[in-house]
Amino acid sequence: MLAKSATQSRYIPELDLTLPPTDLPDEDGWPMEEAWNMFQLHLLIDVVSSLWRDRTDYFASGNIFIYYSTEQAKSVIENRPIYKGPDFFVVKGVDGTKFRKSWIVWEEGGRYPDLIIEFLSPSTARQDKTEKKRLYEQVFRTEEYFWFDPTQHELVGFELHNGHYEQKQPNEHGWLWSEVLGAWLGIWEGEYRQWRFPWLRLYTRDGALVPTSAEAAQMEAEQAQKQLETERRRAERAEAELKRLRELLKQQGIDIRERND
Asked: pTM of this prediction?
């Protein structure tokens, strides 16, 4: 789908001020990223939702435009975007129930992403490691930036300190701690959407894998089945014990019959 046309920026003579445009494209006309990128994005959104299942004060998304300046917005309108948006990002302290097709910084109280993750590919790796890293560090001031290369099993992360990114150090599993998420980011080899591939997943502080919604539902179903089985066995043991006591009493000449009220 081609990008939508947009209205021109509004000029207010008495203020000598050009306001940012309001009718901004939310698609760029290019096809979706390859299937893995799409699934990885959905996976991260899913597990963040699972990790923060009781919260609505955040926005997690990806592959949507982030507008942060009039110049950059104009470049998108003219179909020569100097920047589109990250593969995945999280903004905390905002209304997560609000529907957004793009993230427009000046309409969000000047809020930029608190965490950004880029999925590397041969065509994007150089830009993700240089130009985008500088943008997130010097313009966005994003607290944490990660990149993940599934083909090379490479996970690298940075944390903003005194205005500059310092590289995070992995733990013994190769995971990187995210202060923004309050969880570990780590590479998981397993099946997701019927694909067995290296996936970027979240782990709790104590090392437990954060489940997807489907995994959580399966675990709940299995737990419910175990509970039913436990109750059935308890009932069978109680019935067997009652039968044993009746036999003992009967041997002593005491016959206790069941009553049907």
From this structure: 0.78
